[in-house]
Amino acid sequence: MHSFKDLNSLAPLYLAVFVAVLGFSLVAPFFPGYAMNLGANFTMLGFIVSIYGAVQLITQIPIGRLSDSWGRKKLLLLGLATFTFLPPLYVYADNAYTLLLIRALGGVGASLVWPTAMALIIDQARPQSRGAAMGFYNAAFFSALALGPFIGGVLYDQMGSKAPFYFWAFLGTVSVIIVYRQVSEPKKAKAEIGLLPENGDEGKEPLIAPGYRNTFLACCSVVLWAGVVGGFNFTMLPAYATKLGLSTTDVGLIYLVYGGSTAMSNIYFGTQADRGRRRLLIFTGCLAGLVSFALLLRAETMIEVVILFASLGAGLGMGSPAATAIIAETTCTARRGEIYGIFNTARMSGVVVGPLIAGSTADLRGVDGAIIAFTILAAAIVLGTLTIRDSRDRIDMQSKI
Fold this sequence. Notes:
By secondary structure, the protein is mostly helical. The chain is built from 14 helices and no strands.
């Protein structure tokens, strides 16, 4: 289990992640309108939104690799600093092309933060509690993602469009202070492959343990699915809600339930992942996503939609910590920054691909067509999870012999 000692040592990182995510999610309720008021059309808006993830696709892996050699804390501080000085630039932007540049710089900052933070957590967590450690990380992330849009909407309504951006900068400053004062640079890990037995070839440092490449790809598809769901929510959820006669407030409530369910389930199932049956958790979580999306086609009331999005969030919380823990144990510990750069690139691939799938299929077949496309993608990911091998199963078997 995730001991109090682990929780105390990692709490500053969790808090920094929460504060950072809370900051950039503040602008979600009004950012599309803000961009269009500066002259963006829908096509331009799509570029402004997607460039954030596209830049991360390019930069996360090299930045993760750099953190393995240069140090994680310095890169994390640099990334969080961008959450401080970039938000005010949005206030003074005078056209949509300026937003495009600011979002691109923000993507670089995010690349400095997320894989580095994940690697720091895995570095410091005990092997037997990595699932819970990543569960709390995801809980911090998604709880802030649930609260941020609500707080940002209130600030926007009560104090105008500038207030959320300045509050975002303030929260970025707070996260920098937390990491600078409370987070220590971990000792560099020796080159080894997680919990797997050594293969005797000391001259090589394979990125992925022999025989676990398909497992690595399947685990990456789990977080890719999380990114795809986020892309669907941003692009299609308002249109889907309108089709059912739901209000903007109802959409905010759906976001809150989805984020809250994802956060709470990450904590619970992260702990369960450390007790075993991680393959089952991953398969069941992805299956919940498949069923939830399929049933969206039949939902007619607000309560039905809320239940399905709660189930969708619970499925993400069930599978993600287990997938992260398996990757930690089947890859080279000395190259964790690079590993989680790849891992987060998979998630950002979903963030970029999700809106493209949603938009293109909705243009051809309407909102229902988009839901069908996402259901098919979910089915493919569920099938992919059947290829996962859990290193802990092998170790448990050896300990019994």
